[in-house]
């Protein structure tokens, strides 16, 4: 087993991990970093349960090699909470809109929504659906997920205009 040390920023903290060169980023984040929000769903990049942001863009961490994370900025669901542990506005919107049922897909959907809700321009519901199309949910029927993302994006845009 070949090992390599990699240094990356995970949820705002620079960390060094010793990884098997064949190890996925999801395995590194769950195993060594102890971040349980990254779910193992399909392990082939089709369900989105393991979605994280790498340098601000969503990636399926199950098919992203850990060694590729060298020097990268990685954000997981755990990194969305504030310093006191309060959940983010998108997490609250998922609760408010009933977008959570079994919850297995929720971290991946929330992470996939971050670029959408951070946009300066409003997305249509069809555009939101397209942007989250790499994430699968077997419980909710997607409407409440789209509602939560749309609500949060509109709120953030309104707050920016109000400043």
What does this structure look like?
The chain has 163 residues and is α+β, with helices and mostly antiparallel strands. The protein is built from five helices and five strands. It has helices spanning 25-31, 89-96, 106-117, 125-131, 143-162, and strands at 3-10, 13-20, 51-54, 57-60, 73-75. The protein has a five-stranded mixed beta sheet, with helices on one face. Strand 1 (3-10) and strand 2 (13-20) form a beta hairpin. Helix 2 packs across helix 5 (143-162) and helix 3 packs parallel to helix 5 (143-162). It is globular and about 50 Å long. The termini are far apart. The model has no long low-confidence stretch (mean pLDDT 96).
Major sheet: size, sense and barrel closure? 5 strands, mixed
**CA-CA gap between termini:** 54 Å
Instruction: Round the Cα radius of gyration to an integer and report it.
Output: 16 Å
| Order of adjacent strands in the largest pleated sheet | 2-1-5-3-4
Morphology: globular
How much is the average pLDDT?
96
The number of distinct β-strands equals 5
Report the portion of residues in β strands.
15-25%
Number of helices, counting only DSSP H or I runs of 4 residues or more: 5
The poorly predicted ranges are none
Helix/strand/pairing class, anyone? alpha+beta
SSE string: EEHEEEHHHH
Helix content: 25-40%
């Amino acid at each position: 087993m070949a090992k390599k040390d990699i240094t990356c920023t995970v949820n705002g903290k620079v960390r060094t991990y010793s990884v098997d060169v064949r190890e996925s980023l999801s395995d590194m984040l769950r195993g060594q970093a102890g971040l349980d929000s990254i779910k193992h769903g399909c392990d082939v990049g089709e369900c989105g349960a393991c979605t994280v942001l790498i340098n601000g863009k969503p990636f399926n961490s199950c098919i992203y090699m850990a060694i590729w994370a060298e020097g990268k900025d990685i954000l997981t669901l755990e990194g969305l909470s504030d310093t006191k542990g309060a959940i983010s506005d998108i997490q609250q919107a998922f609760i408010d809109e009933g977008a959570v049922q079994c919850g297995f897909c929720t971290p991946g959907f929330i992470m996939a929504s971050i670029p959408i809700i951070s946009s300066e321009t409003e997305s249509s519901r069809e555009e939101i659906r397209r942007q989250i199309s790499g994430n699968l949910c077997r419980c909710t029927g997607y409407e409440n997920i789209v509602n939560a993302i749309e609500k949060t994006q509109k709120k953030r845009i309104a707050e920016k205009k109000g400043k």
